[in-house]
Specification:
This protein is an all-alpha fold and about 180 residues long. It folds into 2 domains: about 130 residues, no CATH class; about 40 residues, no CATH class. Helices cover about 65% and strands about 0% of the residues.
Length: about 180
């Protein structure tokens, strides 16, 4: 066990506060992703109605909707009917939180961070929907494709570079003839 003095620099490092905030928001977004993963393949609204137990239809209270912690506190069961709640719910929340944290640690607070967060968030949704239903819903993939094209055009222009850097031009000129 290390003395507290050797851990002190880690405790006062300014990165931990924003990293913790990013992790918590990533888990909260992960909670919403569970709604998207469950409802989009069934062509249901992702806004209404509120989340409910799939077994007894009891509305899930706000205090039972805390990412990861509520599932652990309730022992993976519905508070009302005690039916098991899939481990997928905390897994998605934790995975998204960890991916958001990883993106933050890689990119820091710059213009690439929101792009990375959108990328990992949409990827989590698509992976879990595909694993369960073997589909990639157009309602998610088409807007994501548009987002990727906009990012591909905007980021080089914001940096003062041309739209087609030399490394991209080589394969295109090869195709031209």
């Amino acid at each position: 066990m290390q003395p507290l003095e050797t851990l002190y620099p880690l405790l006062i490092d300014p990165i931990w506060l924003p990293a913790t905030i990013v992790f918590v928001f990533g888990a909260a977004v992960g909670s919403f992703l569970n709604v998207v993963i469950h409802r989009v393949p069934n062509e249901q609204s992702i806004v209404f109605p509120n989340s409910a137990c799939p077994k007894c239809s009891a509305s899930i209270k706000a205090y039972d909707n805390i990412p990861v912690l509520s599932w652990l506190i309730l022992g993976g069961k519905c508070r009302n009917c005690k039916a098991p709640i899939s481990v997928r719910y905390p897994a998605v929340e934790l995975l998204n939180a960890l991916l958001w944290l990883g993106a933050f640690l890689i990119f820091g607070l710059n213009a690439f961070l929101p792009v990375a967060l959108v990328f990992v968030t949409v990827t989590v949704v698509l992976v879990f929907i595909d694993a369960e239903h073997m589909i990639l819903p157009n309602v998610i993939t088409y807007p994501f494709l548009a987002f990727a094209i906009i990012v591909r055009i905007a980021f080089p222009l914001m940096a003062g570079n041309s739209f087609f850097p030399d490394t991209l031009a080589y394969p295109l000129t090869g195709l031209a003839g």
